Amino acid sequence: MADKTFRLDVVAPDAQLYSGDASIVVAQTTVGQIGIMANHEPMLAELAPGGCVVLTDDAGVRKALAVQGGFLSVTADTVTVLAEAAQFSDDVDVAAERAVLDSAAEGSEDFLRAKSRVRAVEAVS
After folding, report:
1. Does domain 2-89 bear CATH number 3.30.390.30?
2. Cα dihedral 49, 28, 60, 82 sign
3. Across the strands, what pairs with 12?
4. CA-CA distance, 64 to 44, in Å (whole number)?
């Protein structure tokens, strides 16, 4: 199965959140959603505000991360997510984030952060 996986690193300024093999990564970029599989063409994309990144590891387990800004870099055999901030969906209090969505001004930093966290939870629900 090695030819159907690639190296994935997800890093933020304060932590390395994931480092291992993956079979697919789906990310929301400023130009739309993109899926990356093994042998994808090299590219660089800006991650969308309020977006999330979903990965499927080499064991077939799906994991989602709320990602606030940053970049997605694809090389011949590695994908790197360089996030300004990121958090696994398992660590999100969905009720609290939905309350923020209801009270925060649309497009504000708080709104986009909450939107990102809710999207990550919904992506693996």
Report:
1. no
2. negative
3. 15
4. 20
Among 57, 41, 51, which Cα is nearest to 8's? 57
Mean pLDDT, the chain, as a whole number?
95
Per-residue pLDDT, 3: 75
Tokens linked to 29:
């970029």
Report pTM: 0.91
- Bridge partners for 58 per DSSP: none
- How many other β-carbons are positioned within 10 Å of the β-carbon of residue 59? 9
What's the pLDDT tens digit per position in 44-89? 999 999 999 999 999 999 999 999 999 999 998 899 999 999 999 9
Looking at the DSSP bridge assignments, the partners of residue 27 are: 34, 53
